[in-house]
């Protein structure tokens, strides 16, 4: 499990990835919307009936039948393993309505440890705890409840967070196992076609609407024999033992990932969505964008090599020429010739500005420009060749000036 990663334990997509299932969901959508509207109306009646009828077998039977209309089907395995003297049920957590489903099979109370209080807490079927200023106060309150005769058993979810129920169990918190010496493990498996059972950042109300929209949601409840704490066994060891029992029963893997790890993973997923969205455009453009980035890197590397040979040439000029030639040697030759022409023109401007007067000769200047005898294979050779061309260029400009103004060679 650790090699698969925590992302396998949660569904961040509500809809399936397969094209065939998406098409089937699209065809089913009008039916699902009609079912959702009808089930909202029926659900109000289920709520009123559950409030009006007294606690007992008759109410649980009627509500269970009406929940089947809502698409919630409950099946249980090994009901005879349920111990009536056990005051604490320990169950894995899959959906926001696990406690309601198990309450259809046997009376039990689930404390609301976090979230809304008051009417909403009562309407969802939670038991509100008032002394929740600290975990110690909460544990003391629940311990007193378990020691009170005539109270219904407690139902706790030590994972403290939902999973998709397909891969593994979150690490069980140890504090529920310090309440009593004996617990009743309850293994819960939930299946639903077409859409996911839950998404990490969805509210319980949104999950209720999706439950009404789905064709059905089947809850498989398996009762395991009660487990007692061994002598000298700590609460965490007791929790690990029960976690392993439930994992084996469900065919899942017992992990060391906690509720905090889930919260951190959700935070990473939330921040990674904008990054993935920003990277969609270059990915959709295809291989051209990737090759462009690769070419830019290669041109930058080639420009650096040319810069080593011609340190006085600006880098943008080198890069522009390399984009045309795509060859280091050709670019160096081109830049040397450009440098040579520029310096010849500069020499002409300087000499003409220095002259104080005189007639301009119509004699034509030499048309043959000095060129290197050979192009060096190494940077040192190319540098020497450049110095030779530079000296020849100066001589060429001097001769041109002398011929133009009719001066003697000695002058």
Automatic annotation (TrEMBL):
InterPro entries: AUP1_CUE, CUE, Plipid/glycerol_acylTrfase. Residues 351-382 are annotated as: Disordered. Residues 352-365 have a biased composition (Low complexity). Keywords: Endoplasmic reticulum, Lipid droplet, Membrane, Transmembrane, Transmembrane helix. Residues 298-340 form the CUE domain. It is a peripheral membrane protein. The keyword Endoplasmic reticulum applies. It is found in: Endoplasmic reticulum membrane; Lipid droplet. The chain crosses the membrane at residues 21-42. GO terms for biological process: ERAD pathway. It comes from Takifugu rubripes (Japanese pufferfish). This is Lipid droplet-regulating VLDL assembly factor AUP1. GO terms for molecular function: acyltransferase activity; ubiquitin binding.
């Amino acid at each position: 499990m650790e090699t698969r990663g925590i992302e396998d334990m949660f569904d961040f997509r509500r809809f399936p990835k397969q094209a065939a299932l998406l098409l089937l969901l699209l065809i089913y959508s009008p039916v699902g919307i009609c079912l959702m509207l009808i089930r909202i109306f029926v659900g109000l009646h289920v709520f009123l009936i559950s409030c009006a009828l007294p606690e007992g077998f008759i109410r649980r039977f009627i509500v269970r039948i009406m929940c089947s209309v809502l698409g919630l089907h409950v099946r249980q395995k090994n009901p005879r393993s349920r111990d009536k003297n056990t005051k604490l049920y320990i169950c894995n957590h899959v959906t926001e309505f696990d406690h309601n489903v198990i309450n259809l099979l046997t009376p039990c109370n689930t404390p609301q440890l976090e979230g809304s209080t008051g009417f909403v807490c009562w309407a969802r079927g939670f038991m509100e705890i008032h002394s929740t200023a600290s975990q110690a106060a909460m544990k003391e309150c629940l311990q007193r409840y378990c020691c009170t005769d005539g109270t219904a058993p407690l139902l706790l979810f030590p994972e403290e967070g939902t999973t998709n129920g397909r891969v593994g169990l979150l690490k069980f918190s140890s504090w529920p196992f310090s309440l009593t010496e004996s617990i009743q493990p309850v293994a819960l498996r939930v299946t639903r076609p077409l859409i996911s059972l839950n998404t990490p950042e969805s509210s319980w109300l949104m999950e209720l609407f999706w439950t009404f929209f789905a064709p059905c949601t089947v809850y498989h409840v398996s009762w395991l024999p009660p487990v007692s704490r061994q002598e000298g066994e700590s609460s965490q060891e007791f929790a690990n033992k029960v976690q392993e029992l439930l994992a084996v029963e469900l065919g899942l893997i017992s992990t060391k990932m906690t509720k905090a790890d889930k919260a951190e993973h959700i935070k990473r997923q939330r921040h990674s969505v904008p990054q993935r969205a920003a990277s969609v455009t270059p990915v959709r453009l295809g291989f051209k964008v990737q090759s462009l980035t690769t070419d830019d890197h290669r041109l930058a590397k080639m420009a650096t090599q040319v810069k080593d040979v011609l340190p006085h040439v600006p880098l943008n000029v080198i890069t522009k020429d390399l984009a045309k030639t795509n060859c280091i040697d050709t670019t160096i030759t081109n830049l040397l010739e450009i440098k040579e022409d520029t310096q010849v023109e500069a020499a002409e401007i300087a000499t003409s500005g220095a002259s104080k007067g005189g007639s301009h000769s119509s004699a034509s200047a030499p048309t043959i420009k000095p060129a290197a005898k050979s192009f060096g294979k190494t940077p040192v050779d190319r540098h020497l060749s450049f110095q030779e061309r530079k000296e020849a260029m100066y001589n060429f400009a001097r001769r041109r000036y002398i011929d133009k103004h009719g001066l003697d060679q000695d002058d």
